[in-house]
Design goal:
The chain is of the alpha/beta class. Strands 1-2-4-3-5-6-7-8 form an eight-stranded mixed β-sheet, with helices on both faces.
């Protein structure tokens, strides 16, 4: 049977929000419940473009709630963060209806969705949202300066950089670039956030900022699993490959998810 998804509605502070719920055919009695946020550089993206990662998360044993935040991302920070934090609260309260009453809660995202996932983990710590057991960050957009070595190499090979436009839209004003929820790489207080899985690739423009954030989380005492895929992956653009063909790195990524769920106690070894 494999992984299937259904269209459902979540009741949030923003009203009824359509989501996709992915479920695999091999689930534990209390499967991890994951809020998944797709990429799109704060310029676009959709539930369709996030299908590949959401499916891999479900294949790893999770119930995945994929939400489209793109309409909120058309407004400057903190609109998208507030919208997705409301959804995270819905999952926290309604996990029994989606998975199990005792299901551990995770947030996951790639690229712009990874930025939001990291910001949500920080906010969940600060407002004492109960039950967030982990954050899964894939090529997260964390540093608006885009001055790392991996970004300079990517810009040298590209004719334009959509991430510049995305950061400009998301931040709106330069003063917001200092807010830790908007730019987690600038956060000076990382202790106490949920354990993190950080995955990047050798050819990923966000590689250096991902690695730096993983290091700073670890130095703050946060449990971190970190992986850098070798070779050419095409990340982060390859995340939204909707052709239906399983990429070469898909099996590795699914394995990273499973290992992280096990390490955090969300799945048995």
């Amino acid at each position: 049977m494999g992984t299937v998804w259904t269209e459902e509605m979540l009741d949030s502070d923003a009203g009824r929000v359509p989501v996709r719920v992915y479920r695999g055919d091999r689930q534990a009695k209390t499967p991890p419940l994951v809020l998944h946020l797709h990429g799109g550089a704060f310029l676009g993206g959709s539930l369709e473009s996030g299908e590949l990662v959401a499916t891999l998360l479900a294949n790893a044993g999770a119930v995945v709630v994929a939400a489209d935040y793109s309409h909120a991302a058309k407004q400057p920070f903190p609109a998208a963060l507030q919208f997705t934090f409301g959804l995270l609260g819905c999952l926290c309260k309604g996990r029994a209806n989606l998975a199990s009453r005792k299901s551990p809660l995770f947030v996951a995202g790639e690229e712009a969705g990874g930025n939001l996932a990291a910001g949500l983990a920080l906010k969940a710590r600060d407002v004492h949202l109960g039950g967030l057991q982990g954050q899964i960050l894939l090529s997260p957009m964390l540093d608006p300066t885009m001055a790392t070595g991996s970004f300079r190499k990517a810009e040298a090979e590209a004719t334009n950089c959509r991430w510049v436009d995305g950061w400009n839209r998301y931040l709106g004003f330069a003063s917001k670039a200092c807010h830790p929820y908007a730019t987690p790489s600038y956060c000076m207080r990382l202790a106490g956030v949920a354990p993190a899985l950080v995955v990047t690739a050798e050819d990923d423009p966000m590689r250096d900022e991902s690695v730096n954030y993983a290091r700073r989380l670890r130095e703050a005492g946060v449990m971190v699993q970190e992986h850098i895929l070798a070779g050419r992956t095409g990340w982060p653009n390859a995340y939204c490959n909707c052709t239906g063909a399983r990429p070469q790195w898909g099996e590795s990524l699914c394995g990273f998810f499973t290992e992280f769920f096990q390490e955090t106690g969300a799945l048995p070894h």
